[in-house]
Amino acid sequence: MIKAAQSKDTQEWLHNNALFRGFFRDKADNENLCQLIVMLKRRIYRYQYMSVSYPRFFETYIEHHATMIEMCKKKDADLAEKTMKIHMRKVRDVIIDSLAASRNLLI
Which of 60, 66, 75, 91 minimizes the number of CB atoms within 10 Å of its CB? Predict the structure, then answer.
């Protein structure tokens, strides 16, 4: 993922990002969590391409992912959840800004 970010390789980034999400799904010994991850993946599918349209945010995404992994290793669910929420808000903001910019181009 870091290599893809450094080279601004969005295809490789998407591939590695899917592996990242899949890692949590595969390691979760919790069927409810697995189903939630699958449902969220389906809901965000079309938006993930928009979020990687701006590779300048890859470094931020990597920091979020690294923190989530570290918090899981430490079994700090609260901080892992907090980091996930921060990450989701950042990605949401990138997508909203992207849509707003596109809309302004059309007007």
Answer: 75
